[in-house]
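Q: Sequence in, structure out?
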Amino acid sequence: MRKTLAVIMSLFCLLYLCNAYAEQYPATFSLRDGLKFGSTEEEIRAAMAGSTELTEGKLLGWASMGYDGDVGGKKATICFRLDSDKKLVEMGYQFECNSASETLSLYDYYRELLTKKYGEELSIPEGKSHILTGSALSGIASAGIKGKSEWLIQDGDNYIKIDLFAFSVNVYGVSVAHTDIAYTCFTQEDLNQAVDQKNDSQQAVLDDL
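A: Exactly. Output:
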């Protein structure tokens, strides 16, 4: 009897330790080549070895680092944004296109793949974006966005925002078109601040009505 109780107690202890371990080390969202949010500048360079690093003048406006690379057989600009501690908080792909129809075709292609991997996209009114939005999407001219899809995934205590959008404008007769995918990591504090800012903004409008 005592032996049986000892076995049962051991199993309970094992389950407790497993749960504690899971809470302390939550599942980490995986990016490309073994990178994850929180990766350092050195780790990014090691993972991207063999790709051509972009000079500062060729970087996308929101990025800290960038490379000419390959994403599933398609050429792309691969960019990374680091926080003040030089840790990775956002990664994005930009696929250059020759026309608006091409960027929409590529958008539909990746929309189907992302839905297959991460489930249904967020339901957001046209012309709006989720309260958590990465720099790649928030920094682009909204008038040029021809298609947009967003996903939000909880990863431990963090939130991973995925933004997919097709962009196309005509500048002095020259077509500028590209399809972008961006992954951004937000903390619970980021979400709380975003909610507070939205509430403050709405209250300011209400005060004037």
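Confidence is low (pLDDT under 50) at residues 2-27.
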